[in-house]
Amino acid sequence: MNNINSVLENDEKIIFRLRELYSKYGYMKYRMSKFEEYDLYVRNKDFLVSENIITFTDVDGKLMALKPDVTLSIIKNSREDTASVQKMYYNENVYRASSETRAFKEIMQTGLEAIGDIDDYCICEVVMLAAKSLECISKDYILDISHMGIVSQAMEGIEISLNGKTALLKALGEKNVGGISAVCAAEGIDEKSTDLLKKLVTVYGAPDKVIEKLKSLPQAEKFSDAIKQLENITEMLTLVGCADKVRIDFSVVNDMGYYNGVVFKGFVNGVPEGVLSGGQYDNLMRKMSRKSGAIGFAVYLDLLERIYEDSHDYDVSTVLLYDEDAKLCDVNNAVKKLIDKGETVIAQKTKPEKLTYKKLVRLCKTEVEEIENNA
Amino acid sequence: MKTMLNVALPKGRLGEKVYAMFEKAGFECPSIKETNRKLIFENKEKGIRYFWVKPSDVAIYVEHGAADIGVAGKDILLEYEPDIYELLDLDIGKCRMAVAGKKDFRDNTQKTLRVATKFSNIAKNYYASIGREIDIIHLNGSIEIAPILGLSDVIVDIVETGTTLKENNLEVLEEIVPISARLIANKASFKFKNEQIEKILQSMTCQMEDKK
Known about the structure:
heterodimer, A: alpha+beta, 9-stranded mixed beta sheet, 13 helices, B: elongated
């Protein structure tokens, strides 16, 4: 049935490719309800991308929400008792307010989560799958990897107010060297720590080069665990041939209250924002009183429609015109014959305006005669 | 073919100064100096395309990726909080965001303060940070007139020399934040056109240091 492929839209093809990829590595499809108790999101508000949630009252009076996020639901429903790692993937719609249009949007999201006693292999596998997911979307992609361990170590020991910390993280995320200096000066942070933070946001590039630079920092010892982990990930990505698409970028700062280890963000050429985002979120697990660790990512499929030009040259391959007095069975026969030839057919009494087609044919009694051929 | 780097420049004097910096960085585009009404100029050899847009729109072009990099005032970045990289403070187009009011204005803290401004978000954040309740009256221009006509108690606006304020019998009551032009980049473009952007960034950083 090669017909199926021609009917599928590009984003649908991507969904299938991603599902194939995840199931190959033993991730199970996780299907969940569209609704979730609102309470779950109130308790973890900071984790959500936007605070606006669509809520409604269920028949029993409970306040429910249309899911703005999938990860929280997966954690909530994950089991604690197994010693092994639960590997799951999902493909769900989430509902979020867009900060730009100030209106709710339905966003198709695909992602995967590994929850349990996650080890080095597991972390590397998830990062590798993130790279492979991007490859499914476009050959021209970049995966930015950062490590919250390094960023939080660099910020450890400096005394900073809550507002200052927010401002500092924002400046880090913007690669705003001037902003970092300003915040640090205002908060009275010593020059050494300021310098380190500035260096971290300006090192950007291929993993081996950045790791080299990290090792040469005077504070390198503090980061040795994180550096080791980054080296492991690089090794794994080299093995699968994705290493040249990876950059280390410490401006990827996700919320420290939730993420602890490696965090990453994926870009494909042609989409102005990140299409993939994820990381290790043991801290979130603690907040939800789980003992195990977790890592995962999400792919935002709604952003992808822009990178594909419409590949169809015409709306339909054949327009079949029939008269008022044409017999039902004759029209049906004619349409069926064309379909069997592999055409797509629209039967109309008059030619629709603005419709593009390859062939225009008219049904005369039982015979089909060609009027126009654009092929 | 070389990939083109799209640069959004703010129309006006600031934009011309900024273009001079790009020129010095080795990304000249001679056709830009011709006086006509064209908005887009490109130099295929250098792989660069400039376009003039309204200064307050630069950040929008960059955030949506229509421009890879651009130059925008810090006021715009604070107001719209676009999701971009802020790579460099260019130290030009300097002014400050300030609260201004009539010369004899005395803040009555028992009342809600009425603030007229083009920069609603900045005003809101500033007054929230000092815990003052305000009503925001959003205006699009001639802000200075608002306190004179009693539309508002004070205004939040950009102050460059203070001449407009003085001529309208107003004065700066409080400074909120200093403003200057910033080099900004789209987050995805920064990765895919990294080499070109880094080159511009480095050259501009050097130019800034030379000036000092």
